[in-house]
Structures are given as C-alpha cells and as structure tokens.
Write a structure and sequence with these properties.
This protein is of the alpha/beta class. It is built from 10 helices and 8 strands. The strands form 2 sheets. It has a 5-stranded parallel beta sheet with strand order 2-6-1-7-8. A 3-stranded antiparallel beta sheet has the order 3-4-5, covered by helices on one side. The structure holds 2'-deoxycytidine-5'-monophosphate.
C-alpha cells in the first residue's frame, strides 16, 4: 500500500498584494492543508484598536497602551464550508470584509510593528501550525514563525502589477478606493514592513524567490508542483 506523503509546513512571504493569498489558498486546497492568512490577523488586531478609538487623536497610539489592551483581543480563523473560504473573527464577530478597508490598510503597518503585538500573533500562529499540513502566508513566516518550514517561498511582483491586483480585488469586494491611493498605500506599507526593527520583511536565506508578475495562477501551481515533489524526494532520501 502506498504511504501518505509526510505533512509539510509551507511558508509564503512577500510584499503587500503580490498574490500570496491566492497562491497559498490554491496550494492548501490542492494538498488538503489548512490555510492561515497572518495578514488578516494583524488587520483584525488593528480593527480592534480603531474601534476602541485609539486612532481618534493620533496616527500613532502609544505602544504601551496598545500592549495593555492586547488581552481583550481574541482572533480566530474559521473555515466556512459553504464558501470554502477562511474567515476572520474578532472577539466572536466575523470581520472578514471590514479588515480589508483602507482605514485598516492605512494603520496596520503601525500596529504590526509593535513587538508585543507580534509576540502574541507569532505564538498564535505557531499553535495554528503545530500539527503541520499548513500553508501560512505573511511577512515573517519563513524567518521567524517557522524557520524550519520544509518549503519557503518568497513571492514578489512589480509595483504596477501589485497595485492593479489589489485595486481589482477591492472593487470585486465592493470596497471604494482609487488606484493611486491603493498604490501609495502599498508603497508605504512595503517601506514600513521592511524597515521596522522587529521581524522586518526579508527573504529567508533558504527561501526560493518567485516573481509572478507575468505568471498566471496555473503557471505558479505548475512551478509549485515541482518544488513540492523535489521537497518530498529530499525528505525521502534523508530518511
Ligand atoms: O498580507 P496583508 O497585506 O493583508 O498584511 C497586512 C499587514 O500586516 C502588512 O502590511 C504587514 C502586516 N503583517 C506582518 O507584519 N506580518 C505578517 N506575518 C503578516 C502581515
């Protein structure tokens, strides 16, 4: 009888809007793995602080104040069997649509640069992936959350392609935003995410770089198929 292949941890990191979630979801569906969108988790935390009024008088609330309120936040990712999509819940409420708004996009890089926020999210993400068989996308998955992941992919695409993708995605979801504003937001977030002190966005030394600017999702999946087979073979050879 043929043995089931071993369950892997697949880490996908990269800039904002380079197609990480589309790619990660497809891989998860193909391998019957779970999918964890870590950006959604940072977005939900940010939404909590917006709703709590922390951004009313300032663009940069005190990190100590943010840290003191973290215990009030419960984040869950639940798989919706009907839509076959993972949805984000903040303190029991479905916030999947709200967390994609520009109000959240414009503030999430500030909140996600706060060390206490990252510690809490990383702990939760490690728990979510402890049984392997997971595809996780974000900025620090291959470098910090799962440095031992068997597959690490660092995804990138040109700024023009990324801005257009995010703009279309927002339009499809019925969220108002101009192309220029979307592009500016991406550039600003790239800068903050890759220059922050705590776990900045960077390619792990052992991550494979993929520029998908001119690739269809189908082509990316073909590329991934080869990486997956190669990884399984390597694990087999090491056994
Ligand atoms: O993937 P996204 O664009 O939805 O992520 C939103 C923000 O969350 C992103 O600008 C930076 C932050 N983030 C992070 O700091 N670490 C992660 N692992 C994922 C996202």
């Amino acid at each position: 009888m043929k043995k089931n292949p071993p369950l892997l941890t697949i880490a996908i990191d990269g800039n904002s809007s380079c197609g990480k979630s589309t790619f990660a979801k497809r891989i998860a569906r193909m391998l019957k793995y779970s999918y964890v969108d870590t950006g959604a988790m940072y977005r939900a935390v940010t939404l909590y602080f917006i709703n709590a009024g922390l951004f009313r008088d300032t663009e940069e609330p005190e990190p100590e104040l943010v840290e003191s309120l973290l215990n009030h936040i419960m984040i869950e990712l639940r798989f919706n069997e009907d839509t076959e999509q993972t949805e984000t819940f903040l303190n029991g409420k479905n916030v999947e649509k709200e967390i994609r708004s520009m109000a959240v996009s414009n503030r999430v890089s500030y909140i996600s640069a706060i060390p206490a926020v990252r510690r809490k999210m990383v702990e939760l993400q490690r728990k979510m992936g402890e049984n392997k068989g997971v595809v996780m996308d974000g900025r620090d998955i291959g470098t910090v959350v799962f440095p031992d992941a068997e597959v690490k992919i660092y995804l990138t695409a040109s700024p023009e392609v990324r801005a257009m993708r995010r703009y279309r995605e927002l339009q499809e979801k019925g969220i108002e935003a101009g192309l220029e504003a979307v592009r500016d937001n991406l550039m600003t977030r790239d800068h903050i995410d890759s220059t922050r002190e705590e776990s900045p966005l960077r390619q792990a030394d052992d991550a494979i770089l993929l520029d998908n600017s001119d690739m269809t999702v189908h082509e990316q999946m073909e590329w991934f198929g080869q990486i997956y087979e190669r990884t399984l073979k390597k694990i087999q050879d090491e056994d």
